[in-house]
């Protein structure tokens, strides 16, 4: 088990020094063949990213979260890519909280780490709604992910459209639960994804997102952590959004609007402030 993988980045407390992060989960949308060709296209775009601009991978972190079955082959595709494309982080969409045992059909975080997974998405709204994930199960899983040397990417978000203060309160219950379970110096990514903005025509409003993220960021639980805590936005995110949220969020977590490699690359360049 890879227990001592380096952190994605040394802890840093200020918005200016928190490295931006952008990624995609393919959920269960792609065939295995489409995942391979999507990853290959992104790696080619990143490997041939035009100078004189610095390659996006020099300044930001990029992750790709395929389904479990293609994850190991995606990790191999990435590690075989020419530098700096080989720095793309490969992630998983979920894992079990136990490292091994009689858990038919489940995926061990230790095995994920073993095959090159670096970041594990937990508590996505679809998993909470369709698979019975709770704050308690997400927290247990986050603890296991950290123990295996990976970074938990924990999805949080209010269920209904409402006012900012209520949304932040609902989100903070989810945030507190997970942060209480992981060591204070562990790196964590929080993905703020209002449930009602996932799978929608457009993302949540900029003011709403910025307001909620500001409240979460300013909370004692987040602000007082030693470990790097980045907050990204997800929910119908795509090209054109990051610039409007910049300064408040550390990056984006994309779904449908990154299904075409060119659209994902365009968003990557915007997050890297390249275009
Ligand atoms: O759920 C998401 C990322 O986790 C976002 O999905 P969509 O961008 O397709 O709404």
UniProtKB/TrEMBL annotation:
Its EC number is 5.3.1.1. GO terms for molecular function: triose-phosphate isomerase activity. Keywords: Gluconeogenesis, Glycolysis, Isomerase. It comes from Cercophora scortea. The keyword Isomerase applies. Homodimer. It holds the Pfam family TIM. PANTHER family: TRIOSEPHOSPHATE ISOMERASE (PTHR21139). This is Triosephosphate isomerase.
């Amino acid at each position: 088990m890879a227990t001592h993988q380096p952190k994605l980045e040394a802890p840093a407390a200020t918005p200016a020094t928190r490295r931006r992060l952008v990624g995609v989960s393919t959920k269960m949308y792609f065939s295995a063949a489409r995942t391979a060709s999507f990853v290959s296209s992104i790696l080619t775009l990143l490997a041939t990213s035009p100078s004189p601009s610095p390659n996006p991978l020099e300044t930001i972190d990029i992750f790709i979260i395929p389904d479990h079955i293609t994850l190991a082959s995606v990790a191999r595709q990435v590690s075989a890519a020419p530098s700096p494309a080989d720095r793309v982080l490969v992630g998983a969409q979920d894992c079990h909280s136990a490292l091994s045992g009689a858990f038919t059909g489940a995926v061990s975080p230790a095995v994920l780490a073993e095959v090159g997974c670096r970041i594990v998405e937990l508590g996505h709204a679809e998993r909470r709604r369709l698979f019975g994930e709770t704050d308690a199960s997400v927290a247990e899983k986050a603890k296991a992910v950290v123990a295996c040397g990976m970074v938990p990417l924990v999805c949080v978000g209010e269920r209904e459209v409402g006012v900012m203060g209520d949304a932040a309160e609902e989100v903070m219950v989810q945030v507190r639960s997970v942060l209480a379970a992981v060591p204070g110096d562990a790196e964590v990514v929080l993905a703020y994804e209002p449930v009602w903005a996932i799978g929608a025509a457009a993302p949540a409003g900029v003011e709403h997102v910025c307001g909620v993220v500001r409240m979460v960021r300013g909370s004692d639980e987040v602000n007082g952590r030693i470990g790097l805590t980045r907050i990204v936005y997800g929910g119908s995110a795509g090209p054109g959004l990051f610039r409007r949220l910049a300064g408040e969020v550390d990056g984006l977590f994309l779904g449908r609007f990154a299904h075409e490699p060119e659209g994902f690359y365009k968003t990557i360049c915007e997050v890297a402030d390249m275009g």
